[in-house]
Amino acid sequence: MPIATVNPANGETIKTYDALSEEETERRLATAESTFRTYRTSSFDERARLLRRAADLLDEDTDAVARVMTTEMGKPVGQARAEAAKCAKAMRWYADHAAELLADEEPDESDVKDSGASRVLVRYRPLGPVLAVMPWNFPLWQVIRFAAPALMAGNVGLLKHASNVPQTALYLEDLFHRAGFPEGCFQTLLIGSGAVEGVLRDPRVRAATLTGSEPAGRSVASVAGDEVKKTVLELGGSDPYIVMPSADIDRAAKTAVTARVQNTGQSCIAAKRFIVHTDVFDAFAERFTEGMKALKVGDPMKEETDVGPLSSKQGRRDLEELVVDAVEGGATVLCGGVRAEGPGWYYPPTVLTGVTREMRVHREEAFGPVATLYRVADLDEAVAVANDSPFGLSSNVWTRDATEVDRFVRDLEAGGVYVNGMTASHPAFPFGGAKRSGYGRELSGHGIREFCNITTVWHGA
Ligand code: NAP
User: Fold this and answer.
1) Which protein residue has the closest C-alpha to ligand 1 atom 8?
2) How many angstroms separate the CA atoms of 218 and 200, rounded?
3) CATH code of residue 450
């Protein structure tokens, strides 16, 4: 894939970039390593001061960087501004909490005595340069949720961003530079996916994190496995959204629309499969479909737009193929399903029902504004349909029955269960998946400790 900014709203190529030469990549790896040697000794206070400065700069840049994101990947510009604000918040959260999250721990005195020690400490030390392979769908947020904890822990970052968001990638490098981080703390490598293996095998790179599709995750994890390097994988999702009879159906249907079409439906944690109890199925389906039909699809630079274009022509083709496959297999289209002609990679909000296990959309991730509705007889069937997916990122359940909540929390195979609401990440809560949605966690204390060398310091009596 060429490294280029191509506007998804009209297909126009705005700027292309040459990939880094091998020599330049080597120079950047050397800089990362030498910077790490000194940066690792900096204090939490110093790192926090720099990260807060970066957050302030990002706040100042919000309008401009939001327009860059919208131009590169088509998200409605208001959502782009919200993404920038969320990044600044996460940076401040890690600036405020990293010292406490990574403070030395003293094990139980009885265990210390039992080991023959006078004192034992568990210390969180940084690993070194970490490679981050990132996707375009939240081009700032995906990077910041890696970079803020990694930098606070004393690691340095190497970003290989998706090839269609080079300007956002370069903006991020510039942001950390302007904030005062030493050169080499955060570098953007403009390289294609084919060059990732070489960088990952380099002994100076100590670990990798990838957010993206399952094939990309498998590829990076197998190279890292071969090199015995730690990885965190945040991959795809096809999150269930379960609605039970006791739910507030109006609120559930209204929230369902946002949960499905946020970021034009191109979100790993978007609700994608709507699993509804038969007693409330018709009421929910009607309100949800009305909500999907009422969305404004159009120019993502306009404030009133709810749904912009998909990020690429290929992305739209993939989505359309899932819908065609379902319709040919007998699914019913409640709205959308036919793409409008004209420039830009738009696809209308679409609701499908009558989806069966044989259809691709049942097993694969619909990365765009396409929802599937399932009618279920009871809670057991709801859980069975929800878990009948290779993915296990997050899940949403709507019920006012506490016993049902307990059952869902116990049985749903996912890294999150959001009750009477939609999945949304927050810097203080762990984020990540089960099954083919990946492993490891981002955000919270769990996220910052993923790339630490957890060291036992033992003192003899
Ligand atoms: P993608 O095609 O997998 O690309 C993600 C990143 O991986 C890009 O930087 C890409 O580079 C690189 N890449 C692709 N193939 C690679 C390979 N074989 N070796 C090394 N690097 C490779 O995914 P995407 O289309 O950008 O993003 C959409 C996917 O990300 C969806 O499945 C979505 O659910 C998932 N996602 C997951 C989360 C989460 O937290 N779980 C969050 C957001 C998105 P190029 O651009 O140069 O190909």
Assistant:
1) 162
2) 14
3) 3.40.605.10
